[in-house]
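ok new one. same drill as before - structure tokens go in, u give me an amino acid for every spot. 251 of them this time. try not to just spam alanines like last time pls lmao
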């Protein structure tokens, strides 16, 4: 017999609230949503009153990080599944074994895997003080790797090994320093936010994001371009030329 799971959804976007709530009600009869919170303060109140077994926690909430919820509650008393549109947080959450994460838009198979993990850990403590401290430290230090979803799971790539990204419709090519071309089924803009946090990536053209540490030459001719250390030449959009020069300290 499956033990019932009482869950709290912490999410500020109404559409995302509805999507997750609907998926749970239609596919997971053992998961009962006991509350939906728009912010950390509201979530803390529900946790104190309802004492849920599971919290779906959006990392990016209005004006604050979802991690601040752990300052107002005892995270050892519930399991956590992070939900986020930003892949920068995925690796951070994944490295703490007590939690799982879901990238938006939510996929049913990923939700199934995350809830199955919760079922197995339901009688175990949630996040320890060390887990919370590790998560906060990872957030402060910034991103050193990026998780790339593949057909077989998730591939973790070191940022410094990326030469550039190239858009290909709904796909993105990751051109690596070892000569590999990793094709990922996500649009390039979904990675841009993560890479911007590292402050070493720049989007010189709508179809490209480059690792500026891999640039070996700037060419002025024909509107401008940059040559990467694998000899590939990347075009520079005319409207991005001045911004690029400023970013590189050439202005």
């Amino acid at each position: 017999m499956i033990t019932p799971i009482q869950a709290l959804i912490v999410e500020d976007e109404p559409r995302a609230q509805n999507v997750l709530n609907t998926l749970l009600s239609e596919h997971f009869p053992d998961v009962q949503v006991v509350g939906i919170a728009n912010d950390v303060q509201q979530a803390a109140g529900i946790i104190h009153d309802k004492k849920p077994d599971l919290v779906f926690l959006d990392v990016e909430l209005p004006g604050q990080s979802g991690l601040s919820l752990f300052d107002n509650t005892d995270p050892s008393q519930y399991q956590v599944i992070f939900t986020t549109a930003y892949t920068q947080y995925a690796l951070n959450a994944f490295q703490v074994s007590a939690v799982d994460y879901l990238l938006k838009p939510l996929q049913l198979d990923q939700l199934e895997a995350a809830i199955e993990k919760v079922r197995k850990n339901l009688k175990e403590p949630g996040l320890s003080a060390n887990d919370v401290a590790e998560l906060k430290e990872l957030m402060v230090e910034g991103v050193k790797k990026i998780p790339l979803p593949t057909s077989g799971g998730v591939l973790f790539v070191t940022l410094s090994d990326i030469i550039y990204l190239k858009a290909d419709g709904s796909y993105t090519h990751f051109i690596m320093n070892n000569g590999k071309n990793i094709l990922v089924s996500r649009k390039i803009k979904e990675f841009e936010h993560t890479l911007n946090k590292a402050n070493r990536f720049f989007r010189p053209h709508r179809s490209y994001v480059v690792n500026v540490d891999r640039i070996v030459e700037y060419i002025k001719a024909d509107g401008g371009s940059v040559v990467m250390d694998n000899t590939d030449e990347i075009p520079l959009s005319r409207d991005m030329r001045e911004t690029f020069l400023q970013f590189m300290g050439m202005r």
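The chain has a mean pLDDT of 87. and btw Residues 224 and 241 are 7 Å apart (CA to CA).
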